[in-house]
Amino acid sequence: MSHPSPALVLLDIEGTTAPIRFVHQVLFPYARAALPRLIAERGEDPAVRDALAQIATIAPGQNPLDVLTGWMDRDEKIGPLKALQGIAWDHGYRSGELVGALYPDVLPALEGWARAGVRLAVYSSGSEAAQRLIYGHTTQGDVTALFEAFFDLRVGGKKDAASYAAIAAELGLEPARILFLSDVAAELDAARDAGLLVAQIARPEDETAPCATHPAFATLNAAGTHFALPEPA
What we know:
- This protein has a six-stranded parallel sheet with strand order 3-2-1-4-5-6, sandwiched between helices.
- The chain starts with 7 loop residues before the first strand and ends in a 7-residue tail after the last helix.
- Helix 2 runs antiparallel to helix 4 and helix 7 (161-171) packs across helix 8.
- The protein has helices spanning 20-42, 46-58, 64-73, 79-95, 106-115, 128-136, 161-171, 185-193, 220-226, and strands at 8-11, 119-123, 149-151, 178-182, 197-201, 216-217.
- The protein has two domains: 8-18 and 100-226, Rossmann fold, CATH 3.40.50; 23-95, Orthogonal Bundle (Transcription Termination Factor Rho, Rna-binding Domain, Chain A, Domain 1).
- The longest helix is centred in the first third of the chain and has 23 residues, at 20-42.
- It is 47% helix and 10% strand.
- By secondary structure, it is an alpha/beta fold.
């Protein structure tokens, strides 16, 4: 089955370019441990104050740390939680306590596509700042220059087709010229409904089960080959 060659690849992070275990076993515990001190010592920082104000609006009268703990326990994708996690991770990356992990196939594929003129962007429930941190402090160095744009929950939820339409509009592309890669079938459903090309990245390392409704591949390059993207040199 032939497909138009995408002009841009839009990438999820967790389970697609970075191992789920890094996010859940390293990043999330680090933020959970750091948030009490962050709130106590930096509550007047503008970004922290703004996030706390949002929490007070969402959960009036409740202890913000209790609210955050509940959200983290349920892995909620909520703006103020993601913002505060990003601030905590910023300290961890800059101090050298955190170093981003990418799957071995990711950087060769992205560099090969970029050299061939394919545009690259990121869409994750983590804040844009957190996205830049994970790609800016990897074991292969700072790779943020590969991406022209980072999208987070400001454009909407990842299971909402309108979010992908908004991203296409911001990028100035017809949806059918964008290939979205994610490990989550519901996200792919939403992107497809918005007119994007989609493929699931089903990593054996993360025990991701291939879905029956979308093409599924174990690596970025395998997905790229399916959609006529150039292979890494």
